[in-house]
Records
---
Amino acid sequence: MDFPPYFIDHIAGGRLIIGVIACIHVLINHPLAVGAYPILTWMEWWAHKNNRPDIDQLAYKVTFVVFIVTTTVGALTGVGIWVSTSVFAPFAIGSLLRVFFWGWFAEWLVFITEVSLIMWWFLSWKSAKTDAQKKKHIKIGLALSIMSWFTMALIVAVLGFMMKPGEWSQTRAFIDAMVNPLYLPQLGFRTFFALMTGAVFVWFCSFYFTKKQPAVRSWLVYRLSHFTLIGMLLTLLFGLWYWQNVPDVMKANSSVALLSQEFMGWYDKFSVLLGWTLVSFLLIAVGGLSFANLIPRWALLIPSFMGIWLLGHFERAREFMRKPWVIGEYMYSNGVLKDELAFLQSEGILKHATYVAHREATPENQIQAGQDVFMIACSRCHSTTGMNGVLEKFATMYGHDKPWDDGAMTAFMANMHQTRTFMPPFPGNRSEAEALVAYLQDLRQTRQPLQGA
Ligand code: HEC
């Protein structure tokens, strides 16, 4: 309410844009930056110790890919997360910035160090020739691996906090926000997930780089099978710990599945996908331990594709479960604070919003005031007629070609949080609920898309 609402109709406000950018970022960060750098450093070390220039060459080629992708798409999508969240959910990112100020300050330093180390490591690879130079070069790789992990370790705190702020709810202390109850389980989960998918990604690259070197390929499959299997086991263990700490009300969102077609659909898909991904990882990893030379080259591509879908679905599930909160028990997805809710419901939300045309809903301005109410209360999740369109939702409840009853719709607003626990409570007073209904009835006739900011 304190920011001009930026809205792209049809794609439900813009959360999809945040989601797509963030998913691409995580898909690069976890397997490549956090997972692959330590594996590649280990490969360089092993090649040096055993005098195997062919393995060193392979590590260098994969590093080239990781270097290019992390410093371009990786870095850009990182900035993209800031841009998209600032535009579409400024209230949320603003609060997070306030709570995590020093965390993000540290993150900036760590990130700069990481990028410098990537440059240094990659660009000095070829010139490290003597034993002493090579040893120093391996140490740079090690430092880079640690810094890449640190950037993730800082950001994971923010993600855990958004779901379950823990002690912070009472103390409002930065340190309590950092070590929220989901922090360690999620950090362990993501660390080993990154290691596992990092190994899988190096397999993927070896499809291209070991065409004429079957012996190098089976060395790689065999060695990285260990990384994959250990990563997988620990991912599962930390995953269980993580799941145990997810608040029950949010877990219940997965049983709300019964009410939400869409949720049910992807919850099922997620389970199936999880199963198949584990099978594909296991087949190659266990096979790699005993008969690495028999694994066909193309098979090394499969786990990467499975991993991409799995990670995407995981992030989506995590984001959905947190609803109706953007910050657990503190701020709803539409930016309304839990502590302000009762006040806004009795006083009216228009009176306390900054970017609205009217401060009060009256019979004369109903439609325009209702549009503002929609923008504040619903637009972060619903479009008008497009994705998750609000008209379609009402049509499913009240019929596509029958008239909708104003009274029933107003009553729905008062109870919307009860019928659908993942929706926040309606944050306005009765005349605002009526104005919203008037706007929706009008929208049903005109089907006029809502303009941006
Ligand atoms: C936190 C995001 C969020 C906000 C904010 C939100 N909704 Fe929803 N709403 C959803 C989701 C998700 C669904 C379920 C979609 C599905 O089941 O396919 C839904 C479903 C609905 C439904 C169908 C309910 C049913 O029982 O079938 C209606 C009607 C609706 N919303 C109206 C609104 C109105 C009006 C507002 C604003 C006052 C609003 N919503 C705010 C996320 C939200």
---
Amino acid sequence: MGGTPTTKPDPIMVGGDLSKMLSDDKKAEEEAIALYKSYIKLASDANDPVSRLLFEEVLGEEEKHHDTFTKLLEK
Ligand SMILES: [Fe+2]
């Protein structure tokens, strides 16, 4: 899709209390949601409906994860 693969991993958040860990997880889900939305746009612009559908399905899973962490933080 015109990108360049990387082998550099993103930083891993470690430690903190439960609230901090849940907040870190929620933030990671927000980043994943933004990333998959950008992939959906790329696939759509490339007229690639199969990839777009795949990314939409993954986006749905990431939104469920985000909902889970949001609800846990409200408790
Ligand atoms: Fe996730």
